[in-house]
Amino acid sequence: MLIDGVFSGGGLKGFALVGALQALEEKGYQFKRVAGTSAGAILAGFVAAGYTGKEIKELLDELDMLTLLDARKTILPIPFMKWINLYWRLGLYQGKALENWFLEKLAAKGVYTFSDLEPGVLKLVASDLTNGKMIVLPDDLEKYGVSPGSFPIARALRMSCSIPYFFEPVRLKIGSGDTIVVDGGVLSNFPMWIFDNGSILKERPVVGLKLSVSSEEKPGHQINNGLQLFEALFSTMKNAHDERYISRKLEKNVIFIPVEDYSATQFDLSEKMKADLLEKGHSRTVQFLKTW
């Protein structure tokens, strides 16, 4: 059965998305169109390129995640220098190793730019901080004077998952200036709205994979200090729009995968933690499909 899929962000928690994808494939579901933010964008990009859930798991098994953390070399090898780089470069890690890995794996399927895919099958969300707006790739690239078809998907994936302060943002050259683009999760971490054209009738069911519990299950924020206030503020900002949308229309089509006990930036995940995340995504999806 053909369906459309929307995948949420969540950094390294995204291993759970792969387990969910495998469960859907085991039941005979195939994706016609896919969309996502951050970790969800990576899954969407690989699915659109023709990878199966099993193949994506194999790619992740082969990958040493720590090789993606490409800090810039400094003249003085002292810990303080990385914070100087953060101030001027806007991120602890360059993100080039991550983009090169995307490029290599997509090339293995003969996919380089959006023109290598059918029109409309892949949509990725990023955040334009310079102009304060959301970007849907490749749809919005023309507004920046960029040809959508010629734009590298590996670069689009890096844009969507450039976690602020962690990875350096992508700079789009527009005229004589730069546009700073970061992780799409800043503005829409779960773009379930992306295939909604306002029509009641849909070509296919849209299934969402969301790396969190449902709004009813979610506990409130504990705010006892400044750090907790910042975390609550950021979480509310990035999730409020998406949660209002799905609570109105599509919650029955969303697979909620609770992964709150894991870190989005824990690149040294143990094999057991990876397996646990895969199993959590798989089991939650199997349960969902029993009544969907």
Comma- or semicolon-separated keywords:
single chain, 36% helix, 292 residues, globular, 10 strands, 8-stranded mixed beta sheet, two-stranded parallel sheet, alpha/beta, 8 helices
What is the terminal-to-terminal distance? 13 Å
Overall pLDDT metric: 87
Main beta sheet, described?
Answer: 8 strands, mixed
- What's the number of helices? 8
Question: Care to count the β-strands?
Answer: 10
General shape: globular
Uncertain parts: none
Q: Which structural class should the secondary elements be placed in?
A: alpha/beta
Helix content: 25-40%
Order of helices and strands: EHEHHHEHEEHEEEEHEH
Whole-angstrom Rg: 19 Å
Strand content: 15-25%
Topology:
Blueprint: E1 2-7, H1 15-26, E2 30-37, H2 39-49, H3 53-62, H4 80-89, E3 91-93, H5 96-107, E4 122-128, E5 133-137, H6 153-160, E6 165-167, E7 170-174, E8 177-183, E9 206-210, H7 226-248, E10 254-256, H8 271-289
Parallel strand pairs: 1-2, 1-9, 2-4, 3-6, 9-10
Antiparallel strand pairs: 4-5, 4-8, 7-8
Summarize the model shown.
The chain has 292 residues and is an alpha/beta fold.
If you had to describe this structure to a student in words, what would you say it looks like?
With 292 residues, the chain is an alpha/beta fold. It contains eight helices and ten strands. The chain has helices at 15-26, 39-49, 53-62, 80-89, 96-107, 153-160, 226-248, 271-289; strands at residues 2-7, 30-37, 91-93, 122-128, 133-137, 165-167, 170-174, 177-183, 206-210, 254-256. Strands 1, 2, 4, 5, 7, 8, 9 and 10 form an eight-stranded mixed beta sheet that branches. A two-stranded parallel ribbon has the order 3-6. Helix 7 (226-248) links the parallel strand 9 and strand 10. The longest helix is centred in the C-terminal third of the chain and has 23 residues, at 226-248. The chain starts with a strand and ends with a helix.
